[in-house]
Amino acid sequence: MRILCVCPKYYPRIGGVATHVRNIAERLAGKHDVTVFVTNTIRDLPVEEELNGVRIRRFGCIAPHDSYNLSFTLCGAVRKVCADIVHIHGYDDLTPFLTILLKNRRQKCLFTLHSGGSSSEFRKALRIPYNMIMSKIMQNVDRIICVSEFELQHFQRVLRLPKEKFAFVPNGVDCEEFRGTPCRKTGSYSLLSVGRLEKYKGHHRVLRGFKSFKVLHPDIKIDLCIVGNGPYKSSLQRESELLGLHDYVHFVSWLPQREYRSLLKESLALVLLSDYESQSIVVSESLCARTPVIVSDNSALADYVRQNLALGVANPDDPREVASKIESLLSGTYGQRTHNYNPASWEDVVARLIRIYQEVLTSDGNKHPR
Question: What is the pLDDT of residues 178-220, one digit of tens each?
């Protein structure tokens, strides 16, 4: 098959969508013709290159605060590509909206949403008309793919499209790589907060919960490592200083995969207090590494709490509740909840996608077989 992936970010950018698309594109490229069209705000990246069998074309875009990622040139280029499948990623960006409108009618189109909600009242207000418009436009999409049960149920309700048009394909994770990574335990405990440094990701909540814990237990050797990069970094650094945590909080922009896996495996816990998540790859990685997880009990993160795989924080804005969850890990009352965790691998994800691609290509355009 000739497959064109359209996405807002791709390697070397980091993030959930970039990780997802790279993992499926490189595996698909083993047997299929795969091209990635991606919006780009980094000037020193090549316009065209090939990485691990995947052809990549980068397009300039309008991206205020590194959001929305609107590229007219990308959308126009999609129309000219001879592709059997156009697989679009990212409901929260504007390029997919325009790509669907402008694509060639002969191109079969799939859309993976990667969306769990909105972080601001302004964006929530914008979502109402946007969802109404997208409900109409998505009628031109052959299959809508959701990465979590939460996302599936949410968008079936929001878009009001036939259930047969939706499919569930989760993010994958290379569990064996995490479980095979050596663990270098140190004498002190380390908490992790991993993800793009934006306010909705909740790193500031982790900082405040960590401060509350340190006040209650000043003698316990524990530090916090915040892994990621983004526009909220300077605010987090200032807050760390104001809270008197300078000696205990470490900011790491990026780590090679092997070092990241080791850090994840040797940590006391991953703490993810986002406003929302469509499905968190880093939570799955932590569970594969046998590292306990503390999450906001909301959006797709609530699925992990419901399955008894993570400790849920009902009110992540309450530092005392966050501190109490950290306390339960150290006291041993949490217990090990990760032994039976068996997520889909990226190979499983690609196999599911290929089946969907084949179904779409053989359908008559009016039916959506499973």
Answer: 877 776 555 567 999 999 898 999 999 999 999 999 999 999 9
User: Strands of 143-146's sheet, edge to edge?
Assistant: 48-51, 54-60, 33-40, 2-7, 85-89, 108-112, 143-146, 166-168
Return the number of other C-beta atoms located less than 10 Å from residue 354's C-beta. 18
Residue 259 has pLDDT above 60, yes or no: yes
pLDDT in tens, 261-280: 999 989 999 999 999 898 88
- Domain 2-172+345-362: top CATH class: alpha beta
Q: Strand pairing partners for 145?
A: 112, 167
Q: What is the pTM of this model?
A: 0.87
pLDDT value, residue 223? 95
What residue ranges do the domains of the chain occupy?
Answer: 2-172+345-362, 175-331
Lowest-confidence range among 101-105, 149-153, 169-173? 101-105
Distance of CA 56 to the CA centre of its chain: 21
Check if 2-172+345-362 and 175-331 are the same fold: yes
| pLDDT number for residue 118 | 56
In the chain, how long is the greatest CA-to-CA distance?
A: 68
Q: Write a three-state SS string for the chain.
A: CEEEEEECCCCCCCCHHHHHHHHHHHHHCCCCEEEEEEEECCCCCCCEEEECCEEEEEEECECHHHCCCECHHHHHHHHHCCCCEEEEECCCCHHHHHHHHHCCCCCEEEEECCCCCCCCHHHHHHHHHHHHHHHHHHHHCCEEEECCHHHHHHHHHHHCCCHHHEEECCCCCCHHHHHCCCCCCCCCEEEEEECCCCHHHCHHHHHHHHHHHHHHCCCCCEEEEEECCCCCHHHHHHHHHHCCCCCCEEEECCCCHHHHHHHHHHCCEEEECCCCCCCCHHHHHHHHCCCCEEEECCCCHHHHHHCCCCEEECCCCCHHHHHHHHHHHHHCCCCCCCCCCCCCCHHHHHHHHHHHHHHHHHCCCCCCCC
CATH dotted code for 175-331: 3.40.50.2000
Query: Across the strands, what pairs with 192?
Result: 225, 270
